[in-house]
Amino acid sequence: MNIDFSKILFLDIETVSHEKSYDDLSERMQHLWDKKANYLLKPGEETSPKDLYERAAIYAEFGKIICISVGFINGNRLRLKSFYGHDEKTLLIDFANMLNQFYFNPEFMLCAHNGKEFDFPYIARRMMINQIEVPKILQVAGRKPWETNFIDTMEFWKFGDYKNYTSLDLLCAVFDIPTPKDDINGSQVGQVYWEENDLERIKTYCQKDVVAIVQLMRRYNYQPLISDDCIDYTN
Burial of 79 by CB count in 10 Å (0-12 exposed, 13-18 middle, 19+ buried)? Predict the structure, then answer.
């Protein structure tokens, strides 16, 4: 594939449940989560909606974004930046402002792993919930799949096979890319946020995922990996 890496914004997001626990939800949202939880149960599984609330983070209606890390290629360097914090609306406004300022032309692309199913729609939905105008690059209504400005590293790997999910961690292993999972993994983000209040640790984990996505795209394009001394971590 022939891709201009300088025109791609690589990104990853970290999400948590909107409230720390099921008991913290309003009565209305508890009722709605109960309905949602019934659809999540596997046949024969006997788990209460309260116990299933740990899965709320992956649904934009019941979760929130606490970190968006991005990476862009500048010459021979990969530069990273993160929008993160407890105030979701503020970080989304800052992220939207960046997209509107630098990624407004049709030639620019957004790249994430499983981004078409998760990151991109999740960001857009949370922006709408927070009453933030969705940047043009994220607006897909009325557009055909090939008309969007999205690159999905998981979709590239499918080669038309839509049966299986392939994790970023697994692809890093098979392509001999250093793993970003050397501290926490996605299933631990909620605990690190709600129990340890360690946003810096989550930001670092998120940035490592962005690096992994960039390196995976390099492998897909038969290019050498970016060396560690050419990666700039910021804020």
Answer: middle
Lookup: tokens for 174:
């098979």
Asked if residue 111 lies in contact with residue 4, where contact means CB atoms within 8 angstroms, the answer is no
Name, in order, each residue with C-beta under 8 angstroms of 173's C-beta and a sequence gap of 6 or more. 179
| Angstrom distances, CA of residue 40 to CA of 14, 21, 47, 49, 149 | 21, 18, 10, 9, 31
Q: 3-state SS of 193-204?
A: HHCCCCHHHHHH
End-to-end CA separation in angstroms for the chain? 33
Rg (Cα) of the chain, in Å, rounded?
18
Angstrom distance (rounded) from CA 18 to CA 126: 11
**CA angle at 173 for the pair 66 and 192, rounded to the nearest 5°:** 25
How is residue 166 annotated by DSSP? Answer: -
Model confidence over 9-28: pLDDT tens digits?
A: 999 999 999 999 999 999 99
pLDDT of residue 80: 97
Q: What pLDDT sits at residue 181?
A: 57
Measured over the CA atoms of residue 234, residue 10, residue 173 and residue 184, the dihedral's sign is: positive
Amino acid at 76: N
For the chain, list residues with pLDDT below 50. Answer: none
